[in-house]
């Protein structure tokens, strides 16, 4: 009888599919969304599909190699994390003067965005699923006020992705620093400004204690997408039930992210005000120049890559069909 029970337990365990999913994202909100997704998959499969979420065990730039080698089964992150491997992916994390979370979601789910992203990942034998979206970032933390475009010329600033390229066109000297290094860089004067993430996450990092001026809107990233990424062979090997669970869990995680993140940003902004942070609107002169610079940046980038050009055309067509994009990036 003991042998029989042991065999039954072993057989039941063998029927459980176990994945290792590496989260590239900051633990608060971003990483929590990954854990929420994994729990949804487990619930929907009755425990037959378990996803272990590992917090940044593999670095962004090592993700493709780790997936190919089978060291991990999936990655939780945002497409822009893989810009070193494929610059065309950066646009799918959110982009300057782009849509708000609802508008970004509409493009990805109904306007051809998911298909455009799938075409880019196909050249790496990868497949992704749009599983979440977060609201606008802050527009940047500054040690001194910014009043004119001239104030940006030569300014050392932590910045990332297309936002960094756009700022560079106005004379900013961008640095891509990891989260833990941003506050020390501000405090020592290595940089005089920084943009990183949502206000609630910037608060966790103490950026408001190192730079007392916050600018809004977060023009550089009015929305941040969350995705599940895996080798295509992993997806094709899944059963119908497990595929369905992943798709359904992405939908519920998307809803969770939309409902959860926004109130936290409102609370963070109120905290900043109470602690003496000066919250400014970007001067219209600067926003106008940033828009011009972004138009030049995306024009140059699309010339280099036909698939990026197709993705950008997909977005523009979607905006035209729905009317003007919601691109303010305000979060309060």
UniProtKB/TrEMBL annotation:
A Gene Ontology BP annotation from the UniProt entry: transmembrane transport
InterPro entries listed in its UniProt record: DctP_fam, TRAP_DctP_sf
Signal peptide coordinates: none
Keyword set, alphabetical order: Periplasm, Signal
Broad class of the protein's primary localization: periplasm
Keyword DNA-binding included in the entry's annotation: no
Gene Ontology cellular-component annotations: periplasmic space
PANTHER family associated with the record: EXTRACYTOPLASMIC SOLUTE RECEPTOR PROTEIN (PTHR33376:SF5), PTHR33376
Protein's recorded name: TRAP-type mannitol/chloroaromatic compound transport system, substrate-binding protein
């Amino acid at each position: 009888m003991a042998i029989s029970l042991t065999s039954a337990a072993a057989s039941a365990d063998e029927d459980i599919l176990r994945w290792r999913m590496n989260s590239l994202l900051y633990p608060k909100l971003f990483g929590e969304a990954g854990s929420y997704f994994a729990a949804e998959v487990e619930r929907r499969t009755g425990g037959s599909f378990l996803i272990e979420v590992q917090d940044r065990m593999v670095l962004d730039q090592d993700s493709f190699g780790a997936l190919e080698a089978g060291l991990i089964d999936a990655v939780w992150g945002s497409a822009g994390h893989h810009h070193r491997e494929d610059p065309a992916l950066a646009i799918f994390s959110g982009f300057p003067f782009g849509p708000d979370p609802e508008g970004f979601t509409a493009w990805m789910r109904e306007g051809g965005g998911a298909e455009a992203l799938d075409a880019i990942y196909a050249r790496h034998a990868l497949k992704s699923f749009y599983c979440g979206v977060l609201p606008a970032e802050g527009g940047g933390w500054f040690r001194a006020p910014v009043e004119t475009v001239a104030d940006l010329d030569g300014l050392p600033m932590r910045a990332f992705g297309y936002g960094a390229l756009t700022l560079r066109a106005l004379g900013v000297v961008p640095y891509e620093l990891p989260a833990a290094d941003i506050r020390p860089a501000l405090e020592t004067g290595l940089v005089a400004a920084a943009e990183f993430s949502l206000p609630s996450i910037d608060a966790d990092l103490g950026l408001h204690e190192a730079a007392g001026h916050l600018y809004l809107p977060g023009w550089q990233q009015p929305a941040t997408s969350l995705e599940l990424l895996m080798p295509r062979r992993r997806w094709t090997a899944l059963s119908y039930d497990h595929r369905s669970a992943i798709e359904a869990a992405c939908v519920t995680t998307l809803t969770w992210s939309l409902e959860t993140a926004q109130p936290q940003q409102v609370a963070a902004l109120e905290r900043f005000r109470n602690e003496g942070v000066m919250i400014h609107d970007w001067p219209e002169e600067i926003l106008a120049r940033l828009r011009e610079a972004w138009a030049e940046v995306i024009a140059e980038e699309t010339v280099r890559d036909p698939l990026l050009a197709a993705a950008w055309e997909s977005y523009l067509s979607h905006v035209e069909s729905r009317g003007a994009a919601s691109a303010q990036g305000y979060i309060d």
